[in-house]
Structures are given as structure tokens and as C-alpha cells.
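Fold this sequence, please.
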Amino acid sequence: IGTPEERASKELGDDPDALEKMLHLGTNVPQFASADANLSAEYKAMVNFTNRRAVLLDNIKTCREQLKMALDKEEKEVLQSTLEMELRALEQLNADQQHLEDSMHGEDDDEKV
């Protein structure tokens, strides 16, 4: 046994030709298809809406916190305007998601009452 150098000094070193032909377990890794390839378009769309909604909700929370700490009227107006824009963006996101879900399930806007 011993290190490769010790074995080589006793003329019991590793045969370089045999090493070339060996199958090394560390390099024989089966490759599987990405799990992402098996996800449906519907699921990917829902995850996208979920991620975007999380960002919007975080922005709304931050705006509300900053609004409470605003020092003057101008700062409050700017933060209130920002909060309103974030809320409109959230409403639009919800509408877009509903439209996508309806179109995936074959519902038309004309059929809704």
C-alpha cells in the first residue's frame, strides 16, 4: 500500500496505461433531463405570477412603513403616490392572472356576466 510515490520507488507503481483504461466512478454520472423541462406552461405561469406578486407585496409593505416615518407633507405625498402605483400594479397583476387562467380553461370574457 502507501502513497503513489512510495509504490513507484519499490517498482510497484501504478501502470499509467491501466489508469487510462479504467472507468473512474467520479466521471461516470448519468445525466437526467432538467426538472424544469417537465413543468407545464400553466405551472410556470403561476410561479411567475407568484414571484411578481411577492415583489409587489414587499414593495407595498415597505411603502407603508416609510409612509409612517415620513417627515414632511411632500415626502408623504411621494410615498402615497408610490403606494397607489404599487397597488394598481398588484390589481393589474391579479387581472392578468385571472385572464390567463380563464383562457387556459377555455372561458371567454364574453361569456362572463
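DSSP finds four helices and no strands in the chain. Residues 100 and 106 are 10 Å apart (CA to CA).
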